[in-house]
Structures are given as structure tokens and as C-alpha cells.
């Protein structure tokens, strides 16, 4: 500190002294200034208790023999006693279960006398329970006996309270009967004396003070569940008796009672607070005259630069902490926590400690307020401090955290869980008994949260590693997807991306292969008949041909031309189907009849072949909404395909039947050529089972059939098992 800046500490201490004195003056001043112990609330409360004890135990006590005859038992109490342990069957069963084991043990040990005693005792209790449910009078006697016992307990406790009261002298006379009650010498010098007389000032001795007392006793005084109710106390209390006379408390009696320590404490508190209030008046005088607050105590302080380097939210936290600490001191002072109790020798040291702590808190508040006002007077400083605060930075990050809402919520819950775990540990360190609640929370909440956090972190690292491998071109390793968390969804998306890249690469390679095969196959299939046409056309130009040779060459040219025409038409039809330009003309057609027609069209080829066609058709019509011409093409293509590629001497099976709401057409045959396990390749254009391409056909039959089936919202599937070739076609029917 420079010059006299240390005076700020003196100023803060004086302010703290005044702050601590104001609440005590407000709270304790009326009780202590010009007052004695006998004027205190504590002593007055003790006297009220003595008056009550004197009334109920000496002047107007309940007479037991008279009072027990006024106790009543209500129907509700009878029913409550009867049903206290359940209905009749429940109570009997309970008694039997209680004695069953003991009787068995006595029987096994050979103690017949004990066994008979237990049986007799059990039967007696059961009989008593049964009598409870048969006779209200029986229950009433038991309840009445219990309530009488509770009354005796109440009166005994009252007498015990009277014996423990501090010794007070009194001389009181019943104004009605003249009966005199006296104790001690009322003529000795007294520190407290109260005279009773006249009508308004008579000492009124009640048996029970008020109706609220009834409710208290009905809960407090009972025997084995038999309660004295408010109605009972109302019945047994006696008429109020009025007394005149005097009650005296001498100095000797007070010093010899348990109130001696209370008297000493009251005097110590009073004189100590007198000292505090005098010092606070002096402090106020100094603050108004000699030690006025100066702004330079803050602005010229060497800690200003370091403090200004803190973020604004840290400054706010320090300010609020200092403010709350100050309010806590004031609240404690207002409730008498500092200067109200003095039952131990270290009270003065405690009060000095709190005075220093409050002074430091006030010093921090003054420093922060003056510094902030002076700093934020400069243009733009507050705005800059606010923009650079931790809170603003946190809010921006927090907003970004919830771009993926599910992941953000889960991370937020994890953070809250760790925060609560740390907070709970701190609380347990302060209050160790709370560990009984903290440990279950750790085992059932904290550890599961920690397990989830570690597991998710490990999973995230594995995803990072797999992503790096994917970026380096390793696409065959799949990321394991675990659960349904956002991380699992991210892993799933990465797998989809990996599969998409693989499929893209595979499709690209396949596209290149198919393009090459298509060009090769189309060139081969078109060139073969065209070459034959050109060759035989050149031969026809020869003048030396016989008529027989000429007719033979013309026939070959005609067949090759028809073959070329069929190939070109199939190619155009597949192109139309692929582009969606082929229109269907649907009508209701009997599929059974259509299949019979297709078989009839190919009857000559079937008869000339070495194949055994086994056909199974439904007995009734199978009607579907189809383009009859196109659907006939499907059937014909499949039949022709079986004729071309079935092994000689084998059977070909054709089935047509209804399956649910669909018609199912199946063709099964044994292939003469070795088939690829990939049945999808047979749907490709120009693909044949005869890979050497020695058979007739365009290689488009199955591709055309599949396209027609799909246009009819049907399904066509090829199954291959070794040389077994099976085609299944399904289409919706009515």
C-alpha cells in the first residue's frame, strides 16, 4: 500500500463493527437496556411454567379416584381396539402362527408340561380375541382400564414436574372456600414478587390450561395404545379456582436453582453488548469525521492491474460471494448467532474472528464497486469485457454442442453427473453422515455414468481410427455398430458411406465389363447372320449354280434374315422397356388358358426334343389383369429357354397355381451347360448359359421376361442349385 492506504482496512473494520451492532441493538436492546433478568422472556417463561405446575399439582389438581369415573369409552374406540390387528380370522391366524413353532419345539423336546402350558395360553388368547368380536362390554372394560392407567401416568408425570421446579415461596387463599396454600417465607427480600387480589387480578388455577392442552395430552399420555382424548380431559377437569395472595422469588432461591447459570449468562450478554454498542457509536463518529472513505484507496492500489486482468464473470463471482458473505454475517447477527449466546469461554475470540471476516468482506465489496465504476466509465470497456467473458464463450460453445441434439443432451447429462459427483463429495467432506446417501448415489448413478463415458470415449476413438483407415483407402473393414447412440448412428453412416464407395467402385467396374461384353456380344450376334447373308448372296451371283443349290442358298439367307430381324426387334423391345416407352394394354386374362396356348405353339419343338415336359395346371381359371400379348411373350420365352438349354433326356417341370393373392408360375429343368452361381448375371442382356454362343437366341429372353413381369408389378426370381435351373414368376390375381 502507498502512503496511508492502510486506512482502508481501518475504515472496513469500523463499518463491520457498526453492521454487527445494529441487528443486536434492534434484537436485544429492548430486552437488555435498563432491564433485569426477571424482566427477560426466559424468566417470564419459567414463571408461566411454574404457575401451570402449581395450579395442576397443588391448587387445583385432578383427583384420581373422582376423575377415573368420568372417563368414557366411545364406540369408535371400541371398534379401533377390536380391529387394531386385523379382522377375527387374521388375529386368530396370527396367534396360531406365534405359538406353532414353540409348541412344536416343546413337543420335540418331550416337555409335555410346557407344551400344555403353551396350548392353554394360546387358546386363552384366541378365546379373548373371539370375545372381543362378540361383546362390546368386554372391549369397553379393557379400553377403560387402559385409559385409567394412562391417567395415572399423566398425574405421576405432573407430580414429577412439580418436584423439579425451582423453590418459590407463595401464600395463596381460595377466595371462595378460604383454603390456604403456603410454601416458604414470603416476607424475605425478593427480586421478584407478584400480588394477586381483586376480581381481575386473582390467580386462576385451572386443572388443564386450554383446549390445545387436551390435544397434546391425548397424544402424549397413553398406555399400551389406550389414549386419553380431549373429551376425557374436558370431563375430568375441575372448575377454575380463584386465589388471592402473593408469590415471591428470593435472591437465595434464584441462586440455588438451575436458573443460576441463566442469570450469569444474561448479565454477561448484557454488559458485552453494552460494550459493543458504545464501540459502534464511537466507530460511527470516526467514520463521519476522521476516517471518511477516499476513492484513491482503490484507484492507487497496486492490486488494481491484476484484478482488471480477470474476466468479468470472475469479478462478478467474487463480488457476489463477498455480498452473500456480508449478508450472512448480518443475518447471523440479526438472529443472535454472534452476541446472543455466551455459554463458553471462547465466545470473545469467535466474535473477533467474525468481525475480521466481515471487515474483509466489506473491503472486497468496496474495492470491487469503486474499481468497476471507474473502469466502466471508459467508453467501450464494459462491452469488450462482456464479449470476452467466459459466459459468452461458453454459450457460443454450448449452442454448437447441440447441433446434434441427442449427442448434446447425452454429453450435457454426463457433465451434470460429474459435477454432482464432485459437489456431493465436497458435501460429504463437510457433513460425513451424508455418506449414507452419497455412496448409493455413487454406485447406482456415478459409476454407471462413468462407465458410459469411458465406453463412449473408447468407441469414439475406434471410430476415429476406422475413419482414418477409410481415408487411406482401406474399405474392407466395417466399423462395429453398438447400440442406438449418436456415435452408433455415426458409425452406421460411415459404414453406409463405405458401402456406397465400394458399391460405386464395383458398379463402375461392372459397368465397364458389361459395356465391353455388350459391344462384343452385339457385334458377334449381329455379325454372324449378316456374314452368312453376305456370303450366300455372293454365292448366288455365280452363273454356274444349279437350281437346287440356288434354292438352298436362298433358304439359308431367309433364315439368317429372320434371325437378324428377331435379334434387332428384341434389342429395340429391351430398349423401350428400359426407357419406359413400352405401353401395356391390360385386360382380364385366364393365365391357365394362356399357358396352354403357349405350350400348343411350341408343341412341335417339344415333341421333336428329347425332353419330357411335366405340366401341372390349376383345375379352375386363374384370372389376372395383364397385357395378354406381353404375358404370352414371358411364357414363350421361358418355355423356349427350357427347350434350348435343358440337358437331353431330362424332365422339364412347369407349374401354375394360386398362392395367396398371387399366381405363381414355375419352370424347372436341368441345364446342359455349367451355370454360374450368380443368378443375377442371367438377367443381363445378351447373357447365355451357352457361353460359347453356339445356340440360337439373342440372349435377351430372360431380360425381356423380367422387364415385362416388373411392368405388371410382379416378381421374377432365378434359383440355381448345381445344374438345376429354376425360374419362379409371381403376379397379382383377382
Automatic annotation (TrEMBL):
Stored SMART domains: HATPase_c, HisKA
Subcellular location: Cell membrane
GO molecular function annotation: ATP binding; phosphorelay sensor kinase activity
InterPro entries in UniProt: HATPase_C_sf, HATPase_dom, His_kinase_dom, HisK_dim/P_dom, HisK_dim/P_sf, HssS/ArlS-like, Sig_transdc_His_kin-like_C
Chief localisation class: membrane
PROSITE patterns linked: HIS_KIN (PS50109)
Domain Histidine kinase residues, every copy: 521-734
Chemical reaction(s) catalysed: ATP + protein L-histidine = ADP + protein N-phospho-L-histidine
Transmembrane parts of this sequence: 274-291, 312-331, 351-370, 407-429, 435-454
Membrane-related topology note: Multi-pass membrane protein
Keywords tagged on the record: ATP-binding, Cell membrane, Kinase, Membrane, Nucleotide-binding, Phosphoprotein, Transferase, Transmembrane, Transmembrane helix, Two-component regulatory system
One Gene Ontology cellular component: plasma membrane
EC top class, as a word: transferase
Protein name: histidine kinase
Amino acid at each position: 500500500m502507498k502512503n496511508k492506504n492502510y486506512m482502508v482496512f481501518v475504515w472496513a473494520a469500523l463499518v463491520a463493527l457498526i453492521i454487527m451492532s445494529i441487528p443486536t441493538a434492534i434484537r436485544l436492546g429492548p430486552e437488555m437496556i435498563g432491564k433485569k433478568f426477571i424482566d427477560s422472556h426466559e424468566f417470564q417463561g419459567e414463571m408461566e411454567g411454574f404457575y401451570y405446575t402449581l395450579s395442576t399439582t397443588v391448587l387445583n389438581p385432578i383427583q384420581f379416584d373422582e376423575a377415573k369415573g368420568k372417563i368414557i369409552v366411545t364406540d369408535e374406540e371400541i371398534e379401533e381396539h377390536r380391529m387394531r390387528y386385523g379382522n377375527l380370522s387374521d388375529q386368530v391366524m396370527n396367534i396360531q402362527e406365534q405359538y406353532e413353532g414353540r409348541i412344536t419345539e416343546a413337543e420335540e423336546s418331550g416337555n409335555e408340561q410346557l407344551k400344555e402350558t403353551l396350548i392353554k395360553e394360546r387358546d386363552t388368547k384366541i378365546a379373548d380375541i373371539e370375545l372381543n368380536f362378540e361383546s362390546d362390554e368386554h372391549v369397553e372394560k379393557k379400553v377403560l382400564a387402559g385409559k385409567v392407567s394412562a391417567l395415572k401416568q399423566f398425574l405421576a408425570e405432573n407430580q414429577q414436574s412439580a418436584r423439579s421446579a425451582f423453590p418459590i415461596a407463595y401464600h395463596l387463599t381460595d377466595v371462595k372456600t378460604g383454603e390456604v396454600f403456603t410454601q416458604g417465607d414470603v416476607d424475605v427480600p425478593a427480586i421478584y414478587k407478584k400480588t394477586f387480589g381483586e376480581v381481575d387480578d386473582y390467580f386462576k388455577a385451572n386443572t388443564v390450561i386450554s383446549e390445545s392442552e387436551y390435544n397434546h395430552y391425548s397424544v402424549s399420555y397413553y398406555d399400551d395404545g389406550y389414549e386419553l382424548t380431549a373429551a376425557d380431559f374436558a370431563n375430568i377437569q375441575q372448575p377454575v379456582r380463584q386465589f388471592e395472595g402473593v408469590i415471591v422469588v428470593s435472591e437465595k432461591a434464584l441462586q440455588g436453582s438451575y436458573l443460576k447459570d441463566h442469570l450469569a449468562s444474561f448479565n454477561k450478554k448484557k454488559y458485552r453488548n453494552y460494550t459493543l454498542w458504545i464501540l459502534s457509536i464511537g466507530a460511527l463518529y470516526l467514520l463521519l469525521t476522521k476516517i471518511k472513505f477516499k476513492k484513491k484507496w482503490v484507484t492507487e492500489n497496486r492490486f488494481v492491474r491484476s484484478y482488471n486482468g480477470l474476466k468479468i464473470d470472475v469479478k462478478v463471482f467474487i463480488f457476489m460471494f463477498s455480498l452473500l458473505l456480508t449478508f450472512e454475517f448480518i443475518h447471523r447477527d440479526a438472529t443472535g448467532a454472534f452476541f446472543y449466546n455466551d455459554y463458553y469461554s471462547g465466545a470473545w475470540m469467535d466474535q473477533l474472528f467474525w468481525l475480521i471476516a466481515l471487515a474483509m468482506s466489506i473491503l472486497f465489496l468496496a474495492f470491487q464497486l469503486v474499481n468497476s465504476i471507474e473502469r466502466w466509465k471508459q467508453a467501450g470497456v464494459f462491452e469488450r469485457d462482456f464479449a470476452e467473458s467466459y459466459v459468452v464463450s461458453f454459450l457460443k460453445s454450448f449452442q454448437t454442442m447441440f447441433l446434434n441434439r441427442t449427442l448434446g443432451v447425452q454429453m450435457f447429462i454426463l457433465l451434470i453427473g460429474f459435477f454432482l459427483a464432485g459437489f456431493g463429495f465436497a458435501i460429504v467432506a463437510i457433513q460425513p453422515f451424508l455418506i449414507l446417501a452419497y455412496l448409493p448415489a455413487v454406485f447406482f448413478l456415478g459409476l454407471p455414468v462413468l462407465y458410459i463415458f469411458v465406453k463412449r470415449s473408447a468407441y469414439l476413438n475406434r471410430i476415429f481410427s476406422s475413419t482414418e483407415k477409410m481415408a487411406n483407402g482401406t474399405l474392407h473393414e466395417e466399423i462395429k455398430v453398438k447400440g442406438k447412440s449418436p456415435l452408433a448412428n455415426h458409425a452406421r453412416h460411415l459404414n453406409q458411406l463405405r458401402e456406397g464407395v465400394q458399391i460405386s467402385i464395383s458398379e463402375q467396374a461392372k459397368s465397364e465389363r458389361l459395356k465391353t461384353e455388350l459391344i462384343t456380344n452385339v457385334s458377334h450376334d449381329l455379325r454372324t447372320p449378316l456374314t452368312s447373308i453376305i456370303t450366300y448372296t455372293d454365292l448366288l451371283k455365280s452363273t454356274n449354280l444349279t437350281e437346287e443349290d440356288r434354292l438352298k442358298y436362298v433358304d439359308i439367307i431367309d433364315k439368317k434374315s429372320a434371325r437378324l430381324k428377331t435379334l434387332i426387334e428384341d434389342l429395340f423391345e429391351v430398349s423401350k422397356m428400359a426407357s419406359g416407352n413400352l405401353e401395356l394394354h391390360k385386360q382380364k386374362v385366364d393365365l391357365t388358358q394362356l399357358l396352354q396356348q403357349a405350350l400348343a405353339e411350341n408343341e412341335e419343338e417339344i415333341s421333336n426334343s428329347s425332353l419330357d415336359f411335366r405340366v401341372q395346371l390349376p383345375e379352375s381359371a386363374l384370372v389376372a389383369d395383364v397385357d395378354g400379348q406381353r404375358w404370352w411373350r414371358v411364357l414363350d420365352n421361358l418355355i423356349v429357354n427350357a427347350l434350348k438349354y435343358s440337358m437331353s433326356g431330362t424332365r422339364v417341370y412347369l407349374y401354375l397355381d394360386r398362392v395367396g393373392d398371387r399366381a405363381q408360375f414355375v419352370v424347372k429343368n436341368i441345364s446342359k451347360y455349367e451355370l454360374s452361381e450368380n443368378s443375377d448375371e442371367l438377367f443381363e442382356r445378351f447373357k447365355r448359359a451357352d457361353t460359347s454362343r453356339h445356340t440360337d437366341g439373342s440372349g435377351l429372353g430372360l431380360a425381356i421376361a423380367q422387364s415385362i413381369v416388373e411392368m405388371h408389378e410382379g416378381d421374377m426370381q432365378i434359383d440355381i442349385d448345381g445344374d438345376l435351373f429354376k425360374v419362379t414368376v409371381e403376379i397379382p390375381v383377382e
